[in-house]
Amino acid sequence: MYSTLLAFDWLFLIEKLVLIVGIVSISLVIAMYETWAERKVAAFMQDRRGPNRAGPMGLLQPLADGLKLFMKEEIIPNTSNRMLFILGPCLAMLAAMMTSAVIPWGGKIDFFGREVNLQIADINIGILYIFAVVSMGVFGIMIGGWASNNKFSLMAALRGASQAISYELPMGLSLIALLMLTGSLKMSAIVGQQLDGTWNVVYQPLGFLIFLICAFAECNRTPFDLPEAENELNFGYHQEYSSMKLGFYLFAEYINMFISSAVMATLYFGGYDIPGVNDAHLTETVGVNLMALFQALTLFAKIGFFIFLFMWVRWTIPRFRYDQLMNLGWKKLVPLALANMIITAAVVLWLKK
Predict the structure, then answer these.
(1) Number of H helices, E strands in the chain
(2) What angle do CA 308, 137, 179 make, to 5 degrees?
(3) CA-CA distance, 262 to 96, in Å (whole number)?
(4) In the 8-state DSSP scheme, what is residue 49?
(5) What is the DSSP string of 139-157?
(6) CA 40 distance to own-chain centroid
(7) How far is CA 240 from CA 16, 88, 150, 235, in A?
(8) ω before 223 within 30° of 0 (cis)?
(9) Mean pLDDT, range 235-253, rounded to an integer
């Protein structure tokens, strides 16, 4: 037993714990300031100033909003299922945070002679892991809506569940076409194939477009925010929630937006690949650690672009009707994704001959 403990790589455990704490902290901070950025983007598009009271340029507004949520009275309806009422937002937040585990945030760094990957878990089924965890997030919406014992919350939760089922199918089909080209489910391998080469979006433009539309639906973002249609369902599936339980639902949405942007950048836009630069040559010039920093900043710049796209679309396109939402998913996106998959398969087979 003692020899087994000595043989265990404790540095590896510490390394992963540091990565987990770092990525979780960065995700929470980015989600917090996404609320500020969304208000600023909305203000710019509507010719307003946006948050400008709490701190310079309103930069302390997210902290004020978070403090407000912490200080608010926590109300649990008497007719609700108490255990499930608490479990719903916790599950939504947990699913949102777990998705980041398989995303490669940069290259390797040299830490006192030890090679450290900027990735929590480099598993062989990285994409399948993301799909599995994202599917769990729907349970957070369903459980919260049902446990509230409110007809509007339940209707919104049913919308969210059916919406997720409808759009996960074309999203999965678009990824099958991508996997035919990459031949791997590992996120690090997919990024590695794009380093100093052609990004996957060049080979799969239609697949990326389908994935992008489905990502909007999966994140419950406009024009697919039917589970939160205030004009139809009051406040949506989290109508009965208050204090930090409501904060967990709101934060989960912004974290999902951040992680979805990271996944799209990783799968289709080279991940941490620096465009127009030979990464191997630059690594020899500036060193491994500085190169890893440049790569991480490049990935976050790509993520920032997609986050801005999420916000831009929200304040540009009106919300779909529910029948339009389902019609687009089943009658438009699924056939397009199937056609894209078949064409990709035919091209791959032709090139192998």
Answers:
(1) 15, 2
(2) 70
(3) 13
(4) -
(5) HHHHHHHHHTT-HHHHHHH
(6) 21
(7) 38, 12, 8, 8
(8) yes
(9) 82
Q: What are the Cα distances from residue 16, in Å, to 21, 114, 118, 122, 271? A: 9, 13, 9, 11, 21
Q: Which pTM value belongs to this model?
A: 0.89
Structure tokens at 45: 């598009």
What is the C-alpha separation between 159 and 236, in angstroms, rounded? 10
Look-up of token digits 């620096």: 274
The residues with which 108 forms a beta bridge, in sequence order, are 117
Amino acid of residue 334: V
Dihedral, 236, 237, 240, 243 alpha carbons, nearest 10: -100
Q: Look at residue 230 in the predicted model and tell me its pLDDT.
A: 62
* Residue 283 pLDDT greater than 60, yes or no: yes
Whether pLDDT at 8 is above 60: no
DSSP helix/strand/coil, 219: coil
Nearest to 147 by CA among 213, 202, 99, 80: 80
| 319 band by pLDDT with thresholds 50, 70 and 90 | confident
19 assigned to some structural domain: yes
How many domains are contained in the chain?
A: 1
Query: In 3-state terms, what secondary structure has residue 223?
Result: coil
Residue 213's SS3 state is helix
Q: What is the domain range of residue 129?
A: 8-352
**In whole angstroms, what is the distance from residue 234 CA to residue 43 CA?**
24
CA atoms within 13 A on the CB side of 345: 10
How far is residue 164's CA from residue 137's CA, in Å, rounded to a whole number? Answer: 10
Our measurement of the distance from residue 31's CA atom to the centroid of its chain's CA atoms, rounded to an integer in Å, reads: 11
